[in-house]
Amino acid sequence: MINKSKVASEQQSRVHKFRLLKNLIQVGDHISVTGIATRTNTGQLSLEARELPELLSPSMEQVPEKLTDPKTKMQERHVDMLVNRDVVDILRLRSEIMKQIRDHFHSKRFLEFQTPILAENAGGAVARPFVTRATEFRGKDLALRIAPELWLKRLVVGGVDKVFEMGPAFRNEGVDATHNPEFTMCEFYSAYTNLPDLIKETEELIYTLAKHSQELISTQLTTLPSIDLSKFTRPFKQVEFIPALEEAIGVRFPKLTAEDGALPELLAVLKLSGVEIPGEVPTSLPKLLDRLAATYIEPMSFTEPIFITNHPACMSPLAKSFLCPKTYQLVSARAELFIGGRELANMYEEENNPEEQQRKLAVHRSLVNKPDGTVGFAEQPALDTDAEATSEPIEEDEWEASPLDQSYVKALDYGLPPTGGWGCGVERLVMLFSGANRISDCLSFGTLRNVVGLSADEKANEK
Fold it and tell me: Using CA atoms, how far apart are residues 143 and 131, in angstroms rounded to an integer?
């Protein structure tokens, strides 16, 4: 509030300057005003100026009243943030969620570490890595990490019982509504922790984040939709992978081992029963099982959060496995949390037998070296219909699974205690609690497609 009648000395001259300033300043300018704090008759906090405002930084572009075109919103993200408050609210919620995650693990005496992002092996999950070279190691390929998993488990071997990391991870694969090649991953590893412990920890963290996010939405981030906390009532439903899938499609599965005969045998059973497989038929058993789960089990999570548990062992080479007393199938001590058709977290008891780990990694590598255009456990498009177009798949002969990380297997020789591990994509959490439909809304400057497109537009303008 500026009252020109109360501006100090040289009244007439200053009134003239005030009028000039009024005609000059526009939306987007940064100004400085000196005065005393006061309240209006309606009680609104205001500032009674005692000096003329000082223009600190002018806005050379007119800030639009509205900005709705999706392409323009991402190309000029800074303008989008100025015009649309919900854009900033989502990013503020992201910051708060990351802080809350850190506070949660610190309160449980976890230690936070930063592990290598660039190394010889991408590490952890099965996905296509980004490969590069360093001048220090001529002729040797290096990779951006897919996950920090193997590094963090080395720390547990080294005697740090509770570790976690939250940082960037990279997967050289498609872009869609829920996937971006660069994303933020949170993983923790806790010694003497089993699968029920991991499930309980996940339920606690998800409810804590939901409650904290709703408090922020109701008081500060008011452009975001409210969160129905009743949907996060604990305990969450648990669904066993094989029994649920057999019931959904009405067939009895053959032995789901990693041997070459299991895939054609399962395909024959499905064909005989008239079960349709969406898209092209996968060329590996883990990918086929993942596709079936995405079609027949994961949609259950649209009505309530579910844990899918006890995956076939061939899908989880880094997890401990056991013979299921219900199905007599070899399964992993693993669970995935799905909410609204999207995977939120993946967790399992870690394989700590070095010989068994060596065998599992070798077998799994032989399977994924028969790629079907996409690689990984969660590369199918999201189950929502508001999906962005995906990029073209890389040709089959352009990718081969990373070599076995023998240094990790060697580290297990020193003894990894019984350990539970957990991983979650931060952007998925932000989407869940902000109501965003696209991962691009939860990234400061959108997906890789937006970032690369921005650079291309700049070069075109230069020409």
Answer: 4
Residue 118 lies in a domain: yes
Cβ atoms within 10 Å, residue 265: 17
Instruction: Give the domain extent around 32.
Output: 4-57
Distances (CA, A) of 12 to 5, 49, 101, 322: 10, 17, 58, 89
The C-alpha torsion from 443 through 447 and 453 to 458, rounded to 10°, is 20
Structure tokens at 7: 């501006």
The partner residues of 307 in beta bridges, in order of sequence, read 238, 337
pLDDT digits (tens, 9 = 90+) for 146-181: 999 999 999 999 999 999 999 999 999 999 999 999
Residue 62: inside a domain, yes or no? no
pLDDT per residue as tens digits for the range 394-441: 444 444 555 678 999 999 999 999 999 999 999 999 999 999 999 999
**Alpha-carbon distance 162 to 192, whole Å?**
10
CATH number where 448 lies: 3.30.930.10
Residue 224 and residue 355 in one domain: yes
